[in-house]
Design a protein that fits this description.
Blueprint: H1 3-22, H2 25-39, H3 44-52, H4 58-65, E1 72-74, E2 79-83, E3 89-94, E4 97-104, E5 107-114, H5 130-141, E6 145-151, H6 158-164, H7 175-181, E7 187-196, H8 198-204, E8 208-212, E9 217-219, H9 223-230, H10 236-240, H11 242-249, E10 254-256, H12 259-271, H13 311-318, E11 325-327, E12 335-342, E13 345-352, H14 363-378, E14 383-389, H15 396-400, H16 403-416, E15 421-430, H17 431-435, E16 446-448, E17 453-455, H18 459-466, H19 468-473, H20 477-489, H21 494-499, H22 512-530
Parallel strand pairs: 5-6, 6-7, 7-8, 7-9, 8-10, 13-14, 14-15, 15-16, 15-17
Antiparallel strand pairs: 1-4, 2-3, 4-5, 11-12, 12-13
């Protein structure tokens, strides 16, 4: 380089050094360096092992869920740093909890995520109370909270005892905040790996939760603890796979095939809900005809009362096209629950499924009903109930499950709810459970289809109970039973009930969508006029 060229470089370098000495550039460079160290998470080897197990690194999860470039991390410098004698960094372990704010479909959320590659997400891998910060921030900013849980979710580890050189009386950090959130903002959780202890509790303490089939497991304590306690070997999938919790226990709502599908479920769930109970549910534009009358509805319910039909098909025909998002499909399957839209207005949908127990409410369905009614009431979603309910499930198994106790709690949820409500009696409404299709003390809209039938109990079982002595004394009990049932069946005609104003209106099934849209529009105006605020009883996990 020519002499004048070197002189130019020297002048530029001197100018930069002078500029740096007058600014905070050196400190900012150190901050950038530490952020880069944090992005290494638990190190290349642990991250690779995590990926080999079919799981996505936590920072990639955040990028996949949130809108591009929207994540603003809080606590990015938090970590355990080992300095040498000169004050230089010799070792750096980032916090295993990542949190901040971002947007989903343009709407702000708070997100808190476990990094399994650092101490398996356990409490002794945390730095400060970043988890508590995320929960309190969601409450104070009135924003939805998204939990991506992987590991113990900030739970305990015996290594903590070793580090402290003592044990401690356990406490659940910020649990009062976590409980309070359920009556204030939407809380969603995804179990994205083996989730135990406090992590499992954080998943369950949500309005909506999801697990990934094959790579997510959820348990109070994992296989090592269980094996030690009971002396037998149990694998994590056998102990707490999604087939157990999404299909059996109901501890988790939805089961999906991939993490990406889990993120899609989170996005869809949140799209129906307001950011907090102080806001109204978000209405979107739709091209679906509000007065659409589907010819199929006139024949979807068979005349043969013993034949099953597809209740989900009725829902699909009535709501906005493609707008139904089902929740907890495999738990308590005799009751369908989900979120939908009518003319772009978010609503909750509940329906009996005659394909399971003829639509009867068992213990699981009662728990499912309680949670769903509480959800809709907490966020003031109008609720549409498609009724085909023969009552509570009967039999020895139902009694052993405590169906009546759980059923009474479901009825209490219905009677405590103050959100707008509309019932469509599609076919059966019998007994105590059938009577709980709405709160009869409210003037909520109620429409019956011509296929509707109702009473204290179905005629067939009612004849056996009411005419027991006559049947026992009859020469031909079967013949007498048939005669009695035929006589009483003529009283099943819903028009007879309508004549006495025992049901408000019997409608053409094809008019269901226009009538429900009329209901949804007015319900939305009522909700807007009422303003908001948390329900005193809140949403139960």
């Amino acid at each position: 380089m020519h002499q004048e060229g070197w002189a130019h470089v020297e002048r530029a370098s001197s100018a930069y050094n002078h500029y740096a000495s007058m600014t905070w550039e050196s400190e900012l460079e150190e901050i950038r360096r530490r952020r880069e160290l944090a992005r290494d998470m638990g190190g290349a080897e642990r991250v690779a092992r995590h990926v080999a197990e079919g799981r996505t690194p936590v920072r990639d999860r955040i990028d996949q869920l949130l809108d591009d470039g929207s994540f603003r991390e809080i606590g990015s410098l938090a970590g355990k740093v080992d300095y040498d004698e000169t004050g230089q960094i010799r070792g750096y372990i980032p916090s295993n909890f990542i949190t901040g704010r971002g947007t989903i479909d343009g709407r702000p959320v708070v997100i808190g995520c476990d990094d399994f590659t650092v101490r398996g997400g356990a409490a002794d891998g945390a730095v400060g109370n970043k988890m508590g910060w995320s929960e309190r921030t969601a409450r104070e900013l009135r924003l939805p909270l998204v939990r991506l849980v992987d590991g113990t979710g900030g739970g305990g580890s015996v290594r903590t005892n070793a580090a402290l050189k003592r044990s401690y009386v356990p406490a659940n950090p910020d649990w009062d905040v976590s409980v309070g959130l359920l009556s204030q903002v939407p809380v969603v959780a995804a179990a994205l790996g083996p989730v135990a202890g406090l992590g499992a509790a954080r998943v369950a303490a949500s309005h909506f939760s999801v697990m990934v089939r094959g790579s997510s497991q959820l348990f109070v304590a994992g296989p090592p603890v269980v094996n030690r306690a009971f002396g037998g070997e149990v694998e994590k999938e056998e102990l707490g796979g999604s087939h157990i919790h999404a299909h059996g226990s109901g501890a988790v709502d939805n089961e999906v095939a991939s993490e990406q599908e889990a993120f899609n479920h989170i996005r869809r769930f949140l799209s129906y809900l307001p950011s907090s109970v102080w806001e109204t549910p978000p209405v979107i534009a739709t091209s679906d005809d509000p007065v659409r009358r589907e010819p199929e509805l006139i024949s979807v319910v068979p005349r043969d009362r013993r034949r099953v039909y597809a209740m989900r098909r009725i829902i699909e025909l009535v709501i906005d096209t493609g707008a139904f998002f089902e929740i907890a499909r495999y738990f308590g399957p005799s009751l369908i629950t989900g979120l939908a839209r009518l003319d772009g207005i978010p609503v909750g949908v509940m329906a009996n499924d005659p394909a399971f127990y003829a639509g009867a409410i068992d213990a699981a369905a009662a728990e499912k009903m309680t949670r769903f009614v509480d959800l809709c009431d907490s966020f003031r979603l109008p609720l549409v109930n498609f009724v085909d309910n023969p009552g509570f499930l009967v039999g020895t198994g139902a009694e052993k499950q405590g169906t009546i106790r759980k059923g009474v709690r479901a009825l209490a949820a219905v009677y405590q709810a103050t959100n707008p409500w509309c019932s469509i009696i599609v076919r059966k409404a019998f007994g105590v459970a059938g009577a709980g299709h709405s709160n009869h003390s409210r003037s909520s809209p109620r429409y019956a289809w011509p296929s509707g039938e109702w009473g204290s109990l179905p005629i067939e079982g009612g004849v056996e109970a009411a005419y027991k002595r006559q049947l026992q004394a009859a020469d031909d009990p079967d013949k007498l039973r048939e005669e009695l049932e035929a006589k009483l069946a003529s009283l099943r005609d819903p028009i007879l009930t309508a004549e006495a104003f025992g049901v408000e209106e019997i409608i053409d099934p094809r008019d269901t969508r226009p009538l429900l849209i009329e209901f949804a529009r007015r319900a939305h105006e009522i909700v807007k006029a009422e303003g908001g605020g948390p329900k005193s009883r809140g949403m139960r996990p």
